[in-house]
Amino acid sequence: MTLQVTDVFASYGPFKVLKSVSIEVKPEQCISVIGQNGAGKSTLLRAILGLLGLESGQVTFEGKDITNLSPWERAKIGLILVPEGRHIFGPLTVYENLSIGCVKYQRKKRLKKRLDFVYELFPFLQQRENQTSATLSGGEQQMLAIARALMAQPKLMLLDEPSLGLSPVMIEALSKTLEEVKRTSSLLLVEQNVRLALNLAEKMYMLHGGQVVFQGTDKEFESEPKFLELYFG
Ligand SMILES: Nc1ncnc2c1ncn2[C@@H]1O[C@H](COP(=O)(O)OP(=O)(O)OP(=O)(O)O)[C@@H](O)[C@H]1O
Ligand SMILES: [Mg+2]
User: Fold this and answer.
1) 107-133 per-position pLDDT tens digit
2) Residue nearest to atom 9 of ligand 1 (CA)
3) pTM above 0.85?
4) Which of 65, 66, 95, 232 is 20 to 30 A from 23 in CA distance terms?
5) Domain ranges of the chain
């Protein structure tokens, strides 16, 4: 198993958010977590990445208990986030943003190798290498955020609503990109765009009020009107 989250409870002060959440990601698998605003999706990612302490429960990665590791230690072993809202460094160039993503490789040779890999997947980023990142379009910035995460050679890439604010054409491009990324990394995709999630993920989890109310395949999800109703209101 790549990632196993078991019976996790997490709160912001007195405000309880995650209530007995268990999910798992198998090697080379893409799972998707969907749910309405405030369901606890980003909180779940924070808990997995060690950005929010657990009240109880356990997180294991490749069979190792990582519940008490720091976010940095988790990044080093391959858990890499593509955050909601991209959070690229606007004043820096495309090249500089990508270099920052290369958490493990201070050595120039390794950096070059990762850059070659990323530029092959995103040729436009090589053409824009010296462009200030803030001047890229929203969709291009999203691709840069994914490329920056790939620089760290993730074993599990966690994406928080990557389709937010993108046009249908850009969402299509994003979907193709993530299909490519799936060849090299497991994916945990948080999405509001259920269509994108259904297309990419082999397994879906639905969070509602901080609890997993559904888990199953895309087909099982689509054949359950009750969940569609819960999701779409
Ligand atoms: N730092 C915080 N302090 C207190 N409450 C918080 C904090 N961050 C999130 N919350 C609350 O926790 C709940 C879950 O938030 P979370 O961000 O995980 O939702 P989400 O499913 O990611 O929603 P969205 O789709 O809008 O991004 C919400 O009710 C939110 O108000
Ligand atoms: Mg969120």
Assistant:
1) 677 888 899 999 999 999 999 999 999
2) 43
3) yes
4) 232
5) 1-78+154-233, 87-153
